[in-house]
């Protein structure tokens, strides 16, 4: 699972996201999903979420 499908992402899930300022470098930030911000069912760059820490970015990795 790579985070492009909204159905794969639930609140409380452990994920790695890429922040807006880190898109060029690809640096990932780990955290727990607090809110799902993307309304569409799929997004080619990843579903946008807010983490418990308040960081907002697109999901790149879903941790099992």
Polypeptide structure, described:
With 64 residues, this protein is mainly β. The chain has one domain (6-62): Roll (SH3 type barrels), CATH 2.30.30. The chain is 0% helix and 41% strand. It has strands spanning 14-19, 28-36, 48-51, 56-62. A hairpin with a 4-residue loop joins strand 3 and strand 4. It is globular and about 25 Å long. The model has no long low-confidence stretch (mean pLDDT 96).
Number of DSSP helices? 0
Give start-end ranges of low-pLDDT stretches: none
User: What is the highest CATH level, the class?
Assistant: Mainly Beta
Mean pLDDT: 96
Strand order of the largest sheet: 1-2-3-4
* Amino-to-carboxy terminus distance: 9 Å
- The dominant shape is globular
Give a quick rundown of the structure.
By secondary structure, this protein is an all-beta fold. The chain has no helices and four strands.
What attributes characterize this protein structure?
41% strand; 64 residues; SH3 type barrels
């Amino acid at each position: 699972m790579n985070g492009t499908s909204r159905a794969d992402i639930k609140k409380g899930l452990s994920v790695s996201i890429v922040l807006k300022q880190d898109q060029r470098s690809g640096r990932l930030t780990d955290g727990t999903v607090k809110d799902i911000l993307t309304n569409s069912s799929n997004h080619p760059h990843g579903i946008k979420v807010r983490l418990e820490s308040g960081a907002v970015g697109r999901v790149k990795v879903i941790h099992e």
